[in-house]
Design a protein that fits this description.
67 residues, mainly alpha, 9% strand
Length: 67
């Protein structure tokens, strides 16, 4: 059985893909990403994978925080 992708996962993916394409993220955008992931009180498998990918890219400095 295939797991449905939540609406919040889709919005989360869009924001993360934008950060990846731009190679930068603002603190405000990062906070929005966290809020989207936690708004339903549950971080599903897809959301966790997206958050992990973003975090790794920040640690690797592929995506940089900007002011």
């Amino acid at each position: 059985m295939k797991e449905e992708v939540s609406e919040s996962s889709i919005r989360l993916r869009e924001m993360i893909e934008k950060a990846i394409a731009d190679h930068k993220i603002t603190r405000d955008d990062y906070d929005k990403i966290i809020n989207i992931a936690t708004e339903d009180g549950y971080i599903d498998r897809h959301e966790q994978a997206l958050l992990s990918q973003l975090q790794q890219m920040i640690e690797d400095r592929f995506v940089k925080f900007v002011i």
